[in-house]
Design goal:
By secondary structure, the chain is mainly α. The protein folds into two domains: 26 residues; 81 residues, Orthogonal Bundle (Cytochrome Bc1 Complex, Chain D, domain 2). It contains six helices and no strands. Helix 3 crosses helix 6 and helix 5 crosses helix 6. The radius of gyration is 22 Å and the shape is elongated.
Length: 118
């Protein structure tokens, strides 16, 4: 009787392993989810400044000098536009994600505008 139970458990574990192999995402899919893709837009500096004033200055300061959040006045010399975009979308440390708060195109405008701050 014990052999039958162990055989059944082994069979169930093998079946579950096979199902998981075909349903779990692969490394490539997980990497794509981890790195958001920035939409192609032509930067609108006016819109970017308006968005920054409405969403960023409370933590990063009105001159991007820093405050609760880090200074962004020279962020373009440290990070490229893709990294800035990813940080805004996903959040980082104490910074919340702006995915869902802002449209992807708005985040792209902000990232492109900040990337020029060198």
């Amino acid at each position: 009787m014990h052999k039958w139970i162990m055989s059944g458990v082994f069979f169930a574990a093998c079946a579950l392993a096979i199902v998981l192999m075909f349903t779990l995402p692969g490394k490539e899919e997980v990497a794509q989810e981890a790195k958001p893709t920035m939409p192609e837009v032509t930067m609108d500096a006016g819109q970017a400044e308006t968005l920054v004033k409405a969403n960023c200055i409370s933590c990063h300061g009105d001159q991007l000098q820093g405050g609760v959040g880090p200074a962004l006045a020279n962020i373009g010399s440290k990070d490229d536009v893709e990294k800035i975009y990813s940080t805004i979308v996903k959040g980082k440390g104490g910074m919340p994600s702006f995915k869902g708060r802002l449209q992807d195109e708005e985040i792209a405008h902000i990232a492109m505008w900040l990337a020029e701050k060198k």
